[in-house]
Design goal:
alpha/beta, about 35% helix, three-stranded mixed β-sheet
Length: about 300
């Protein structure tokens, strides 16, 4: 799908009430993408995700109603060029969760340079050295290397707002590699707690903290239970789990604190906003990156 067709299809989907499409190298379709195509125009063969490359990656639309997807596919076949190819894939929750486990490519934000831990000895240019390095071991498919857009969107929100929020204590539920906690501590947070549901991931996050000279307190918990509250509570996990854990997450937010939720697309954001409103929380901001949303709620 070329850029012109992508723009036309995107406009048609929005007019049809389906603005919940996602654009990029994500979620169960990675094997459908030719890596040579993604790298075309990147300039550096080590960089596989670039703005120009995204113009040639798939647009993705999720729906539990296969008939709805079949209707969209049929209409696109009638309305648009023959070089637009549509495929319908059935995804299990594991595919939704693990689609970002492709090659870990180095990437940067305004303040950080995020690199695989194996690159700690790499020599960088003067401009690259101006960015604060974060080195991550993403072994065993641990979430939080930045290959998925939710991580990048969360990093952007955190580095823009954390200091203004004066968030000195942070809890990251489902912390994965610990990347968000590492960034928070480097931005001034003094207390960084995380939870994971697997002992190996707990150990991995703690090792990543040590590699970046920060102290992460990560615990094996299915449901987060602590005797203290936090200035910022983060949860980037599956939507059904966010709904199930919402009361527990809210209970851990300090009086003037914030709850940050991610891991969902536009059509899933509405029910979460309503749930938070029903529980007495106020939507403070909503940020979107390539179809993936981050919601920030305040007490």
């Amino acid at each position: 799908i070329n850029q012109r067709n992508k723009q036309n299809i995107a406009a048609w989907l929005v007019r049809s009430g389906r603005s919940d499409f996602v654009d990029g190298y994500i979620d169960g379709v990675n094997d459908q993408i030719d890596h040579k195509t993604i790298e075309k125009g990147a300039g550096d063969p080590g960089l596989s995700l670039t703005e120009s490359a995204f113009s040639e990656t798939p647009m993705i639309l999720y729906d539990s109603d296969r008939d709805a997807l079949e209707a969209i596919k049929s209409t696109i076949a009638r309305k648009f060029d023959q070089d637009v190819k549509c495929h319908i894939h059935s995804l299990q929750d594991t595919a939704w969760q693990n689609a970002w486990t492709g090659d870990f490519q180095e990437w940067s934000t305004d303040r950080f340079r995020i690199s695989p831990i194996a690159m700690m000895s790499k020599a960088y240019t003067d401009s690259e050295r101006k960015l604060t390095p974060i080195y991550i071991d993403g072994s065993n498919g641990a979430f939080g290397t930045g290959q998925h857009q939710t991580t990048r969107c969360l990093m952007s929100v955190i580095e823009t707002n954390l200091q203004n929020w004066n968030a000195k204590s942070v809890l990251d539920v489902g912390t994965g590699t610990g990347i968000l906690l590492i960034a928070c501590q480097k931005l001034g947070a003094k207390i960084c707690f995380g939870t994971e549901i697997d002992d190996d991931l707990v150990s991995l996050a703690q090792r990543n903290g040590e590699a970046n000279h920060v102290q992460l307190n990560v615990f094996n918990m299915t449901v987060p239970k602590f005797t203290r509250s936090f200035d910022l509570v983060i949860a980037n996990i599956l939507v059904p789990v966010l709904h199930d854990l919402f009361a527990d997450l809210q209970s851990l937010v300090a009086a003037n604190g914030r709850l940050m939720l991610a891991g969902f697309i536009e059509k899933e954001a509405g029910p979460l906003k309503q749930l938070a409103c029903d529980k007495g929380m106020r939507l403070e901001s909503e940020t979107e990156l390539m179809g993936w949303h981050v919601l920030v709620f305040a007490n």
